[in-house]
Amino acid sequence: MDANDYYLTRLNHIKSLKASGINPYPHTFRPTLTFEEYAQKYSHIEHITEYIDTAELVAGRVMLIRDSSKKLKFFTLQDHQTSLQLIMNFKYYMQDGVTADEERL
Length: 105
Fold this sequence. Notes:
The protein is 23% helix and 26% strand. With 105 residues, the chain is an alpha+beta fold.
């Protein structure tokens, strides 16, 4: 994809978000925890434990995305001084009451 195609793809995506009533550039984002607070809060979790009914908002730069399978991704996020690795299992991600697929995220 060249730069012009990329620009047009992003422009169309923004237009579709606006048509759906979603602000693609919200003016605020309020994280519930910093990375350090997140790590401390969940440090007791065993490696195989799943918290599917808990949501936290964190803010940082996505440094790495690794695909483990079609429905499982690992994200490495970085804030000012801390890295955080998150796992996303698509079978738990719901969008409009329907399990999301990779194409919609």
